[in-house]
Every structure is written in structure tokens, then in C-alpha cells.
TrEMBL record:
Pfam families: ADH_N, ADH_zinc_N. CDD domains: CAD3. InterPro entries: ADH-like_C (IPR013149), ADH-like_N (IPR013154), ER (IPR020843), GroES-like_sf (IPR011032), NAD(P)-bd_dom_sf (IPR036291). This is Enoyl reductase (ER) domain-containing protein. Residues 7-366 form the Enoyl reductase (ER) domain.
Amino acid sequence: MRAQVLEAFNQPYIFKKIPKPSSPKGHELLVKVEAASYCHTDAVFASGAMWQTLPRVGSHEFAGTIVALGEAVSPDQNLQVGLPVGVPGRAFHPCGKCYECTNNDGDPDGYGVWCTKAGNLGLACDGGFEEYCLVDSRQVAPIPSNMTAVETAPLMCAGVTIWNALQTARVRMETGGGIGKTIAISGAGGGLGHLGVQFAVKLGCKVIAIDTSDAALDLLKGIVQDLGPWGVNVSIVDARKQTAEQTRSAISQPRAGLEDEVGADAVLILPEAQQAFDYGMKLLRNHGICVMVSFPKDGLHFHPRDLVFRHISMVGVLVGRNRQLRAMLNFAAKEGVRARVTTYKLEQLNQLVADYHQGASGKLVVDMSK
Ligand SMILES: [Zn+2]
Ligand SMILES: [Zn+2]
């Protein structure tokens, strides 16, 4: 079968024929890949900055159709040959015994997304930049009938991550569940951010959408336009031109001397930049929550006094549980949340990567039907 294989760090992918995976065993499914999306983590992996080994087929957010099932796939999961499914990276072959696998908050028995023994498709084992891929039956989500594989793929990492970030920001995850909340998104015009803006608004939140490049701000203007009447709940902020203090006081007018009462209920930090973190922290009201999604390699400086005197919480998120993945995908289908995508043929993956590094906006997706 055709695949794009990373054989050396900081080198292009090699487009070549490799053997089709063997028949699925145990909890595995064999999926015919129809779309595979490129994530920032693919770029980090290809740079050699992670701990995994080569050769590797990348992509940990993809979608396709089930072509075969292993003998241990539970009938409770209602999976069958021909069913279209979205596939996230985590978790392939969880151990079934550890704390994560046995305290999984409603996911299938013995399946823990954060099991430390599990693999991550596209990183520790092969992912979606190939025609057929072995996946774990407990990691997938059936694709709603009004969504395509190309629309689904970019939601499998970016979508579920930002959904989990909003849930961690104490938003109730149902239509209208965010009414009364103000959520600031730093890096709102990026791959995760533009999905976060749409989810947050459709959940009922007011959104402060912050970015610092013309391309990202233009993407945000387009998103707001597409949101129609919902768009009034999004304020786009160019952080190059507006200080955090100005942005914060625009959220609502403070009573004189009581400036700490106003501000965002939560801020999601997506860029790997100290300035983005500092700006976001200044937007929070007392008791607010800072959700870290990015993890800059040199770390960040923070002031414990913000946590102590302003009672701000800081927490990080990494992808989400299978039940969150399914809820996110169903919500996206129902409420019309879609990534802005540019599609490429499988053989054009290196062009996709070049465009990514040039700052192409939205999500870049390999469409196998091209
Ligand atoms: Zn990812
Ligand atoms: Zn485990």
C-alpha cells in the first residue's frame, strides 16, 4: 500500500510502498484511511525533539472506514465493517490494568486514554498517512451522517483537545451550557484556536479571540462572519495593538476601585510564547482559570502571587477521553463547527509540511480521494 514514511529527523517524508498491516487482533480494527490531518506535534516529532524512534508513518488525527475487526471488539460498541470512524492518536493498546485504565470515567472497561503503557498512533506506532491503519476499537468515534472524513480528521486531535480545554475551563458541554461565561482564547486564529472560538460561542460563551498576526486575524474575521448572529459574542483582539488592561476593561466596565471584579472566567493559552501567557493571565478575573494547551520547550515564567492573591488556578490538558471525543464530534455535527481546511494528495505531504512552516492558516489535511 502507499504511505508517507519519516525515515530521518529533519528530512522530508518518503513516499513509498509498504506492506499492508496484518489482520486486526484483539481490540484492533483495520481502517481504510480517507483523510489524515497534520498537527503541530507532527512537526515537533519530525524535528527529533520527541523520544520516539524511526521509521514512522505520521498523523494522529485521521478518519476512514472500518474494513475488519479483531475478535475481542465488544458488540456494545456497535462497530461494523463499512462504518466511517474518526481516529485520534490515543490510546493504542492500553494495558487495561493501571489506574488510568480502571478509573476512566465512563470510557470502555479497561481503556485509559492516558495509560502510560499505551501507544500513540502517528508517534509510537504508525498513523494515518497511509492507506490502511491498525487502530484500537475503543479509541474511535463513529462519524455523524452529515460530516465527511475530511471534516472529521482535524477534530480528532485539535477538536478534542480544545473541547477538553473548554470543559476544564468549567463550561457545561451542551448547547447554551456556557451562557454567562467569558472565555479568552490566546492564539485564537490558529488550528486549535479557530475551532475553540466556534465551540465556545455555540456553547453560549462570550469569547475574547486574541492573536498577533494578520493571517490569523483575517481567519478569525472569516469565522465570525460564518457564525452569523452568533458572531456578536466574539471580540477579536489584535494583541499587538491593544494592551491586556484595555482588553480586560472592555470585557465589562468595572466599578471604581473594584477592577478585580471584571475579567475573563478562563483563558486558554495556545501559543508557545511568554507574552501570550502574560497577556492571558492579566485578562483573568479573580478565581479565574488558566488552561495550558501549549508546552514551550524552555518553559514559562509565572508569578505565584497571581495564584495566591488572585486565587487563579492553572491546569493543563492533553487530548480527551473517548466519551469527550464522541460528544465533541456529535456537537460539531449538530452545531456546524468545522475546521478551515486545505487539502492535499497523499503524495503532496511534503508540500503540505512546507506550507505549514510558511504559516498556512487553518488545518492542512491529506485527502485520500484526491
Ligand atoms: Zn495533535
Ligand atoms: Zn493502562
